[in-house]
Design brief:
The complex is a heterodimer of chains A (408) and B (277). Chain A has 408 residues and is an alpha/beta fold. Chain A is built from 17 helices and 14 strands. In chain A, helix 6 links the parallel strand 5 and strand 6. In chain A, helix 5 crosses helix 10. The relative contact order of chain A is 0.16. A nine-stranded parallel sheet of chain B has the order 5-4-3-2-1-9-8-7-6. In chain B, helix 2 crosses helix 4. With 277 residues, chain B is an alpha/beta fold. Helix content of chain B is 53%, strand content 13%. The two termini of chain B are 31 Å apart. Chain B has one domain: TIM Barrel, CATH 3.20.20. Chain B contains twelve helices and nine strands. The chains are: A alpha/beta (408), B alpha/beta (277). Chains A and B meet through strand 2, helix 2, helix 9, strand 11 and strand 12 of A and helix 3, helix 5 and strand 6 of B.
Chain lengths: 408, 277
């Protein structure tokens, strides 16, 4: 039986290896100064993830501070209009701070506290991870510095103000392309300088080991809940999962608990920007190739000389030239499929969900919605799929209005 | 013997410390690099460290970041850098050249192809900042094939176990990063660096260079008391930044700074020789 073979293969899934490799991807590609601090972080993480007290505190925070479990909502009117598979939305937009990012920052902040660190740093693109980091830092009374590309600061002014209200220092990064990748470079430079008292909360499943595995494990609560919820309401597993992929943390969070369910297909949706053929996009898995950046080997948008290219997406949260190494592995191994959706298609998804279901999604999540609509149309009403609605769209009002020539 | 080991052997005989200037290849523009390399040798450099520009220089401070951006404005590629070394070798077959940069340009060219091209161009050693020995197996074998020295970093955070790992992988010399921070950072604690380097010597039997944060002749001289090589980068690159449109003068200033450092290093050596005699 073909199934049995696939299942045996997927039950073997136990990645990454000891040094953080997912096949040829991942690893620890950092300057020497950070190697020992990363090993200390790995050891602390491996210890606390199995520590009952730590888990109890994390669970309580997720329940009472983040507001978990997040609902699994059947978008029935939207599903009817499309006329294909039933579409369920995993409502990460209802989390405290408005996106899935907080699942991870709550976990890493608890770890920082256990490790005796007094200072938190973070990088941010759209500002969601910066807000989620500033939020947990405020709650634990930790100093917080957020690095943000100067260009992103201009297009996400509201989130910048939120971070400042929460007591964080927002540092504009003027180097390179002045976006998320440069903010990550600058955060790394801060960390290497202040490594004794500082915990670097990386917001996605990229960076050097143990970050891709650690962030995945903190985000996997999304998929664990979704799996129980859909079994409870429909008595069976979904046929497909759909999530947007920038660095890929919300996608891996949804996918990972289903990874041994060979019949559940997985779709990661990258930002095609103005179209893959224009070169103005942020889709390394669909249109890039392997390389090494930010501490790991993964698919990158790079030129023939190995220089990292500028990216484009209407959504600042997807505007990143790399992607988590586990996605690179899931692509090569064929376990997950990676597709891309243009700015225009994502905006259509944004409007459809807003108008038909009364839910305003983040532009990042709108990429997943746009692809889910296409995919659902090819499926039957007996089938179901889960879309990770990773964040709410409040932060994007200005971007959408400007793009559509409306003055708010 | 490689040019690098020859160089250190000779310096050891003379009781001298190697002076190793760093500049970014192609900064402020490609045609300036080779004349600058020759000028630095004339001013007393023993080994040249040539930076390979990369779009995301995570370990570098603002001065070298800007140098990188100036070079990349001219699309300076790894192939271009190798061409510059080839040109340098037409007049100078003795001074070792070490490339310093990040892994991705090498990764994209391919390890074997790069190792062959670099050796042909006359490169002697390669330091890829974001490549610790744990990830370097394939790179090291490729380098060994063409007799390139793989140069690795040691840091204040490196423990003894890792120091041994690094020493096993390294060729030419090891490069001790004298502070927790990026290139060009301030506040070098010379005494603490000296103690750490003395400890490293118990574990490593190849020469130990020290860099990051060495700004002037005085610091260079202090570090030379315990280091086999003193690496100076940002202090020189800042001169380029100030003379982007007047590189003739820039070369003179860089030569002056290096000359002062050379003198300070050699003064330390002659004082010590007098004390020992």
């Amino acid at each position: 039986m073909e199934h049995a073979k696939t299942e045996t293969h997927s039950e073997d899934y136990a990645l990454p290896d000891e040094r953080g490799h997912f096949g040829p991807y991942g690893g620890m590609f950092v300057a020497e100064t950070l190697m020992v601090p990363l090993q200390e972080l790995r050891d602390a993480y491996q210890r606390y993830i199995q520590d009952a007290d730590f888990q109890r505190e994390l669970d309580l925070d997720l329940q009472n501070y983040v507001g978990r479990p997040s609902p699994l909502y059947l978008a029935s009117r939207w599903s009817d209009e499309i006329g294909g598979a039933r579409i369920y939305l995993k409502r990460e937009d209802l989390n405290h701070t408005g996106a899935h990012k907080v699942n991870n920052t709550v976990g890493q902040a608890l770890l920082a506290k256990r490790m005796g660190k007094t200072r938190i740093i973070a990088e941010t693109g759209a500002g969601q991870h910066g807000v989620a980091s500033a939020t947990v830092a405020a709650r634990l009374g930790l100093e917080c510095v957020v690095y943000m590309g100067a260009e992103d600061i201009e297009r996400q002014a509201q989130n910048v103000y939120r971070m400042k209200l929460l007591g964080a220092t927002v540092v504009p990064v003027e180097s390179g392309s002045r976006t998320l990748k440069d903010a990550l470079n600058e955060a790394m430079r801060d960390w290497v300088t202040n490594v004794d008292n500082t915990f670097y909360i990386i917001g996605t499943v990229a960076g050097p080991h143990p970050y891709p595995a650690m962030v995945r494990d903190f985000q996997a609560v999304i998929g664990r809940e979704a799996r129980q919820q859909i079994l409870a309401v429909s008595g069976r597993l979904p046929d497909a999962l759909v999530a947007c992929v920038g660095g890929g943390s919300n996608a891996i969070g949804l996918f990972y608990p289903f990874i041994n369910d060979a019949d559940v297909s997985m779709y990661g949706v990258e930002a095609a920007g103005n179209g893959l053929e224009t070169g103005e996009h942020a889709a390394p898995l669909c249109a890039g190739r392997p390389g090494v950046l930010h501490g790991n080997r993964t698919y990158l948008m790079e030129d023939n000389n190995g220089q990292i290219q500028h990216t484009h997406s209407v959504s600042a949260g997807l505007d990143y030239p790399g992607v988590g190494p586990e996605h690179a592995w899931l692509k090569d191994s064929g376990r997950a499929n990676y597709v891309a959706v243009t700015d225009a298609e994502a905006l259509q998804g944004f409007h459809d969900l807003t108008r038909i279901e009364g839910i305003i999604p983040a532009l990042e999540s709108s990429h997943a919605l746009a692809y889910a609509a296409k995919l659902a149309a090819t499926m039957s009403p007996e089938q179901s799929l889960i879309v990770n609605l990773s964040g709410r769209g409040d932060k994007d009002m200005h971007t959408v209005a400007v793009r559509e020539g409306i003055e708010v | 013997m490689s040019r690098i080991s020859d160089c250190f052997a000779q310096l050891r005989q003379q009781g001298r410390t190697a002076l190793v200037p760093y500049v970014t290849a192609g900064d402020p523009e490609p045609s300036e690099t080779v004349p600058l390399m020759h000028a630095m040798v004339t001013a007393g450099a023993d080994i040249i460290e040539l930076g390979v520009p990369f779009s995301d220089p995570m370990a570098d401070g603002p001065v070298i970041q800007k140098a990188t951006e100036r070079a990349l404005a001219h699309d300076v590629s790894l192939t271009d850098v190798l061409r510059m070394v080839t040109e340098f070798r037409q007049q100078d077959d003795a001074t070792p050249v070490v490339l310093m940069g990040y892994l991705n340009p090498v990764e994209v060219m391919g390890y074997a192809k790069f190792a062959k091209a670099a050796a042909q161009a006359g490169v002697d050693g390669v330091l890829t900042v974001d490549l610790p020995p744990e990830e370097a197996g394939d790179v090291i074998s490729a380098f060994r094939q063409t007799h390139l020295d793989p140069i690795f970093l040691l840091a204040p955070t490196t423990d003894d176990e890792r120091t041994r790992t690094v020493a096993n992988a390294a060729g030419g010399f090891v490069y001790y990063v004298s502070l927790k921070g990026v290139t060009g950072a301030a506040n070098l604690d010379v005494q603490a660096v000296g103690e750490k380097v003395a400890h490293i010597r118990n574990l490593v039997d190849i020469p130990v260079g020290v860099g990051f944060g060495i700004k002037d002749a005085k610091t260079a001289a202090a570090v030379s008391r315990f280091a086999d090589a003193v690496v100076v980068g940002s202090a020189l690159v800042r001169q380029i930044e100030q003379h982007v449109n007047s590189m003739k003068q820039g070369r003179i200033e860089i030569g002056k700074l290096l000359g002062e450092m050379r003198q300070a290093l050699d003064d330390v050596q002659s004082v010590e020789q007098v004390q020992h005699s």
